[in-house]
Here is the input.
Amino acid sequence: KILRNLSAHRLQEFSSKFFGQSLQILWEGKRDKWGRILGKSSEYLRVTATKSLSPSQGEMTRSILKGVSHSGTLLVDQHQSDPLFTS
Here is the structure.
């Protein structure tokens, strides 16, 4: 339990460095229990989109990290397609 708490604390410290910044996100097909799509940042952080966003599975976007969701994943908002990864 001590190691899990330490790991969670370290992840929170690392993640907080990116709040308010634009991160590159690869969106997966999975959704959380609230129906929001999940993804991974280029820093390997687990993220979820706000309900106002609807990225597609496999889409690469740049998104602003806003905070932490109910499920503990990082919450992102305001995305735009990354021109490097569009066909």
